[in-house]
Amino acid sequence: MSIAGKLATWAAGLRPTAEDLALADRSLLDTVAVAVAARDEPVVQTASSLSEAARWAVAAHVLDFDDLHMESTTHISAVCVPAVLAAAGDARAYLAAAGVMSRLGSALGWSHYTSGWHATTTAGAPAAAVGAGVALGLDADRLATAMALAVPAAGGVQRAFGTDGKALQVGFAADAGVRAAYLAAAGASADASALDQWLELVGGDQSALDLTGPAIPGGLAIKIFPCCYALQRPISALAELATQLDITQVSRIVLKTPKGTVTPLIHHRPDTGLQGKFSIEYAAATALLDSHQGFASFTDHAVRRPEARHLVDLVDVRLGDGDGDGGLLAGELEAEVHIDGDVRRVRSRLPPGSPGRPPTREVLLRKVADCLQGTTLDPESIRWSSAGRILRDQLQNRPA
């Protein structure tokens, strides 16, 4: 059986557990809140001519505040929630899409990501086809066809990071999946083995495909800070030291981390808020300068603060030779802050919000409240049956 056939059969037969459904509901709340928070972002307005699935995915991803599947290095919910909602789907459709995306992304592997691919978009388009297809009631054969029809859109590269292109790529993936599902439902044909050929072309390993375990193996990491997941650990670690320091006396900041953990951090002297979300040097600056590393820390103005630029210039990043294949949380981060001849050190392995250190309900609701500021939305109103209407109301006809 083709890869698409295997994944489609798994998705069509999925019977979620209570734990799976709880994770789906948490993902919905987090994703919708983050998308609403982005309602006034310029790129969301720029994307107003795109489909609902695309616009909602752009909004869910542009702030880089959306969840992450660690094993596949993919932002699952930014693709799967919009695709499912656009097809009027529910938690089961989301879990089918998320399960396919996590497994496809894991089969693509870390080498796919380190080669420069944007795994969220490569694995995302076929997964979105499954989510929309399950929502439309497609059987396994039609789901496999939908995945094959999504293959032409299963692309995206990391050079888009720090630009509007990153969020737009995610929107294109969600849109392509929904489009493919509707075409399959209308009777379009495709060779399901196209997904097999695509996986080989982009460096994946078919033998790594594992259909066992929960709907989303490994769970999902929730971001506490609105930036690349690779910055969650350095920010949380250095923030622990900030209250003990006189920032004006800092002479040097040394960050020691495995080389694989900085793969997406391509902006070393950022000049915009978007670039700051992919800069380990700026992560150190905001961790030491700001009492709360929230939306205000990642604006153009915040990144260009003289005191932030000064601290960025003091950062010395030392990459370990090992753990190049270990992912964004490989090994351990060690941070040193040199001040007045003294050295303060902190080590960190798991940042808050990671699957091994999950957020409490209180922490999640605090994040949601920050995202929903300026609206009258009640977090309890965000359900699978109402979320599409909420996004439609919040993201349409916004002022430029």
Would you summarize the structure shown here?
This protein is of the alpha+beta class and 400 residues long.
Would you mind describing this structure in some detail?
The chain has 400 residues and is an alpha+beta fold. The protein has two domains: 261 residues, 2-methylcitrate dehydratase PrpD; 120 residues, 2-methylcitrate dehydratase PrpD (60s Ribosomal Protein L30, Chain: A), CATH 3.30.1330. 49% of the residues lie in helices and 7% in strands. Helix 8 packs antiparallel against helix 9. Belongs to the PrpD family. This is MmgE/PrpD family protein.
Number of domains: 2
Largest sheet: 4 strands, mixed
Mean pLDDT: 94
CATH class of the largest domain: Mainly Alpha
Number of strands: 4
Note the total helix count: 18
CATH superfamily of the largest domain: 2-methylcitrate dehydratase PrpD
CATH architecture designation of the largest domain = Orthogonal Bundle
| Widest sheet, order of strands | 2-1-3-4
Family: Belongs to the PrpD family.
InterPro entries: MmgE/PrpD_sf (IPR036148), MmgE/PrpD_sf_1 (IPR042183), MmgE/PrpD_sf_2 (IPR042188), MmgE_PrpD (IPR005656), MmgE_PrpD_C (IPR045337), MmgE_PrpD_N (IPR045336)
Organism: Nonomuraea insulae
Protein name: MmgE/PrpD family protein
